[in-house]
From TrEMBL:
<dbReference type="Pfam" id="PF05742">
    <property type="entry name" value="TANGO2"/>
</dbReference>
<protein>
    <submittedName>
        <fullName>Uncharacterized protein</fullName>
    </submittedName>
</protein>
<dbReference type="InterPro" id="IPR008551">
    <property type="entry name" value="TANGO2"/>
</dbReference>
Amino acid sequence: MCIAVFIWKSHPIYPFLLLLNRDEFHNRPTTALSWWEDGEIVGGRDGRAGGTWLACTKDGKSQKSPKEFAEELVAEADQYNGFNLIVADLCSMTMLYITNRPKDDGPSITEVAPGIHVLSNAKLDTPWPKAQRLRQSFEDVVQKCCDAEISMEEITEKLMTDTTKDDDEQELPHIYPPAFEYLLSAIFVEADTPSGRYGTRSISAVALKTSGAVSLYERSLEDNVWKEKTINYYIERERRGRSLVD
C-alpha cells in the first residue's frame, strides 16, 4: 500500500516537494532510479510490467498537457485495475489528480489545489490514520524549514521510515484481512505473506526549486541491501532541460 505526501505551490523555495514510499513484493523485478533509454525520462521502473511509480521528464513537461493526458486516460480507465495518478506540468505549474477509484463512481479528474496533500490506496486526501500521521509530520517539517533548504536524505529518514501501526481495527480501511491491514497501517511496511516478503521497496523524494533545479533522491532495496542515489538537473525558463550532473 504505497503512500505519498507532497506540497504544491505553497512554499517559498519549493513549488513542489514530494515524498513517496513504494510498497511491493521484494522478489518483483525492479530497476532503481536512473535515466531511461531515451535520456528524456528519469525515475524507477517496474521490471515486470514496465511502468513507474515516480518519474519526471527532462524538461518538466510532456508532449501533451495534463488535461489532454487525463482525458485520454479517463476514456480508457475501465481497462485498468484501480489506480491513482498525479500528473504535473512543472513549467505551467499545472497538476491534475486522476483516479478510477472506487469503481462504482467511475473515473474522475480533479485539479490539485495549492497546499499539502496525501495519497495512498484511497482517493486523494482520504483521512486514513497513516495518511493523517504523515501529513502532520510533513507539515511540521515544512513549516520549520519555511525559509531554508530541506535535505532529502534527512526528511525521508525522519518521516518515511515510521513503522508505527494502528491498533484500533475500526480505523483501518477494511480492504484486506485485518491482520494484513494492521501491517499495512505503518508508513514503512514490513510483512511476510504466503507469496513472499512484502513491504516498502523504495523511499523516494523529488524537489523542484523556484530556480528550476530538480532533485530526485531514492533509497531502494536491491538484493536485501539498501542503496541510495540522487540525480539533479535543471529545467530552464525556456522549457528546455540540461543536466547539472552526469
